[in-house]
Description:
Layout: H1 9-17, H2 25-42, H3 48-66, H4 76-91, H5 95-109, H6 117-129, H7 133-145, H8 149-158, H9 165-175, H10 185-195, H11 197-209, H12 211-218, H13 222-229
Helix pairs in contact: 2-3, 2-4, 3-4, 4-5, 4-6, 5-6, 7-8, 8-10, 9-10, 9-11, 10-11, 10-13
Amino acid sequence: xxxxGIISTVEVLKVMEAFVNEPNYTVWSDLSCNLGILxxxxxxxxxxxxxxxxxxxxxSPIGERLGWDPKPGEGHLDALLRGLVLGKLGKAGHKAxxxxxxxxxxxxxxxxxxxxxxxxxxxxxxxxxxxDSTTLDTMLKLHKQADTQEEKNQTERVLGAISxxxxxxxxxxxxxxxxxxxxxxxxxxxxxxxGSKQGRKAAWKFVRDNWxxxxxxxxxxxxxxxxxxx
Length: 230
């Protein structure tokens, strides 16, 4: 109804607040998706910081309940929910989540305690979103050292979370380099486009500036339409 302009988006936010004690992954996934769309729209307004505060308020109770480590008897949906919630809190700048993500990332890079597969994306997104050139260099090093293509893809999808304009350009240049398989370039550019307002503008300009190369590379296949869509 809000999307159709029948009711105010404020009413949607009020309904969302009622889900703070919700245990179900599917429900949180839907809430996360809708809040993501709202964040994207509000990134062009003065309300962007306020929606981040709202995200932290809604997601922190479930984040505290789940914690960082699996509990006995948990199912795979709990692991998915933990990754979703911690990623959302980290991206929004939730202080305790950011500090713990940085600590765990440091241990992961130093080989002291390797991150579990379901925590890698949320931790990577969190440290990149609030990171600098050193953070990006470390992520690119992890990409180079990755043993499997799946690990490389996981890293490629999150690189666009970086915030500084010059580092966004570095990620876009990396997308077309030999380090990235041609079929995965779209994931990197898409990650930049979905990462921030600055990322969207930079990705759009990058696609236009490199259109000939991208078009020749994908020759009207499904990847070109996916690129345009993102």
